[in-house]
Amino acid sequence: MDLKDLYRDVILDHNKSPRLFGRLDPADSSADGHNPLCGDRLHITLKLEDDRVSDLRFDGKGCAISVASASLMCEAVKGKRRTEIAHLFSEIHEVLTHHDAPVPDDLGKLAALSGVREFPVRVKCASLCWHTLNAALDRKAEPVKTE
Amino acid sequence: MSAKPEIAGVYDVQRVWRDFPILQRQVHGKPLVFLDSAASSQRPESVIAAVDDYERLHHANVHRGVHQLSQEATAMFERARERVREFVNAASTREVIFTRGTTESINLVAQAYARPRLQRGDEILLTGLEHHANIVPWQLVAGQTGAIVKAVPMDRRGVIDVATVAAHMNERTRIVACAHVSNALGTVLPVREITRLAHARGAVVLIDGAQAVPHQRVDLKALDCDFYAFSAHKMYGPTGIGALIGRESLLEAMPPWQGGGDMILTVSFEKTTFNELPFKFEAGTPNISGAVGMAAAIDYIDSIGIENIRTHEHRLLALATRKLEGVPGLTIIGTAPDKAAVISFTIDGIHPHDLGTILDADGVAVRTGHHCAMPVMEFFNVAATARASFACYSRESDVDALVSALAKAREVFS
After folding, report:
1. Of B73, B112, B74, B77, which is closest to residue B244 (Cα–Cα)?
2. Disulfide engineering: B219 pairs with which of B21, B81, B89, B187, CB 3.0-4.6 Å?
3. In chain A, which residues have their Cβ closer than 8 Å to the Cβ of B353?
4. Which of B178, B225, B372, B392 is flagged as catalytic?
5. Domains of chain A listed by start with CATH number
């Protein structure tokens, strides 16, 4: 196993300087995510225009993988329609959980997370933000757990 | 089994290390550096061989049947009970109940001792550094009875002060339950003084000894607590077996916890009479091979000498503390003057989970997370820590491997 495959420069950069970090106030929806295994906590706020996420922010505490994944996700989904987000989610989910799944070109910078799949205990770190975003889009009130 | 590796006052750790087959393996192409013994220690060859011998030659059900194998299995199981009694200097084997481990032991006391006795408003006093296993069973019984769970706070070093414990006791305190040694911080608690205080108030004392028994001599006659719980797998024995040592008069007065075979004398559909101690609390076929392995683990500890292990670990703890304090950005969480072989720490700018992965790539196994002690993490305002813990087989070179792997982690996150 190669640590460089997990901690790629893009990930280290987004961990150090997370993009779209903070909270929107007012927001159209929000959700909390919690990974009890490592104590990671995320909060996502977003604004919707029709079926488009016009803006969003995340904040919270977590490991490098969870912070970078949230930062990359926020950049990737901002301005996208629900259907496009659902498509991205299914692609990243496939990449994270299948050892030999091809990495689709349209993942863009999110492809940097593909190294996580070699570290199965860390997959939940990368997917927490996506589950939290889905919860915010579904307007679920209760916190999301990955356990 | 190896002879006492105390050679002219020098602890031969290399010799002890060689007794543990798993330590010779590699992880990710690197020699394994196992620094997670507080979660579960490894087993020496002698324990593996004792369990193997039992399985191959002696297994049958215990306390049943007159055939040879059943007699042999029964003798080995009961000899294991006697070894456990000796190990902690309990008064009698009637006070030694085999359980699945510390967690089950505490649940047994909560349900069979506390639940029938607690009244609404009675208090169960814990401390702020408890493992979840010594919190949740009490919350459950509090929910069932209307009793209240309170916790004695620790100070910034992770010390539980006797005067603070005293200040938290009152006429409603019925049970005091605390760790002997903290799994998350390493703090050794003043359990003898706490027991004395509690008894003066008429409260009953349970001590969670899971982290104490592998590191120091435990003398229950001197300690005088009412219940003492521990697990074999933290003291070089198998998982799924442990003990509850209880004061005989209390155990006698308690109703059985679970019903089934072995815990009865006679059964009819009208009335069942229960077996005597300790069998009253051992429903069903017990973990016989586990008990045999636990006894072998005690034999192993005795072969080295628990005082020798304690001295070795203390020396290593002091050395590791000094070396880790030299790592830039590293903060040790838990700095009690009296500590067992555990160092919890955080490093600025690197989440413990990332640390765990990076150390693992170097073959270094540490625990990362909340250590089943979320209130402790809350108190120190951290989501998680990394924890290195030492055992009889831990070497100075293991500490060096940890320090150099930490330097790599700092490089990755520079």
Report:
1. B112
2. B89
3. 38, 40, 63, 65, 122, 125
4. B372
5. 3-139 (3.90.1010.10)
HSE, CB side, 13 Å, CA atoms: give it for residue B270.
0
Q: Which domains does chain B have, with CATH numbers?
A: 6-43+305-412 (3.90.1150.10), 49-302 (3.40.640.10)
* Calculated CA dihedral for residues B139, B144, B146, B151, nearest 10 degrees: -10
B6, β-bridge pairs = B11
- Using the beta-carbon criterion (under 8 Å), do A12 and B413 form an inter-chain contact? yes
ipTM of the complex: 0.87
Give the C-alpha distances (Å, rounded to integers) separating B286 from B73, B74, B101, B112, B254. 11, 11, 12, 19, 20
**Angle in degrees, 0-180, between the axes of helices B306-325 and B396-412, rounded to the nearest 10:** 30
Residue B313: CB partners within 8 Å, gap ≥ 6?
A: B215, B340, B341, B390, B391, B392, B394
Q: What is the model's pLDDT at position A144?
A: 63
Helix (H) or strand (E) holding A110: none
Helix count and strand count (H, E) for chain A: 5, 4
Confidence (pTM): 0.93
CA distance B411 to B52: 45
Give me the pLDDT at residue B64, please. 81
Quick check: is B178 catalytic?
no
Residue environment code for B370-401, b if the CB has 16+ CB neighbours within 10 A, otherwise e: bbbbbbbbebbebbbbbbbbbbbbbbeebbeb
Yes or no: say if B242 and B100 are a contact pair by the CB < 8 Å rule. Answer: yes
- Whole-angstrom distance, CA of residue B335 vs CA of residue B344: 9
Instruction: Please tell me the distance from the alpha carbon of residue B307 to that of residue B39, in angstroms, as a whole number.
Output: 21
